[in-house]
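Changelog-adjacent note: as of this version, every example in the card shows the full chain rather than a window. The one below runs 224 residues end to end.
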Amino acid sequence: MKPRLLDLFCGAGGCTKGYQRTGFYVVGVDIADQPRYCGDFFYRGDALSFMRSLFDDGSFATFDAIHASPPCQGYSALGGDHPLLIEATRELLNATGLPYVIENIPDAAWTLQDPVLICGSMFDPPLIDRHRLFETNWGLRHPEWPCRHKMAWPRFPVYEHGRTTYRRWPAVYGTGGGKSRERWGEVMEIDWMTDAELTEAIPPRFTEFIGAQLLAHIAATVTA
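Full-length structure tokens:
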């Protein structure tokens, strides 16, 4: 039987897909309909309310781990009237006693506990210029490679007007600076989302990296 992971604030499932690749059965929860969600099961509802409901009937015992990606807008430089949910999410996660992962943007570093930074350029082959922080309660290790997206070496060949030019580190937002919507899905390694969903998503390779370590942690805990 596959280990079960609860994916809170799941969106269309960028994180979900990475955990699935490492062997998890993933149940997603999101407040909005997610018709393209790629997980094994989906609940529509408020993620924190859903967590509280699981305490009522002991349903947390059916899960082996939890991932949570609270909305990042309130932590961004733009700020605005958006909820700050990381601390409330952590409180509920700690109450479950399960291994967890909390993901958010670098601007949320002040409220995350000993987070690990992951960038798409840390993988081999490298991906996209996208930084995210991951807090865990079980000791996530850093990727082997450092962040490389600001290095001067070219990454992507582009064939234009009969010659080859190069564009460096694509980013999934806007269309300036050589960015192309047509390449967003390619550089994210996601082929099932809309453009709007891609701008909010995490490349699956991030959580594939995390999921392998999480599986090892769960296995070690069971045999200890």
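Structural remarks: The CA atoms of residues 64 and 113 lie 21 Å apart.
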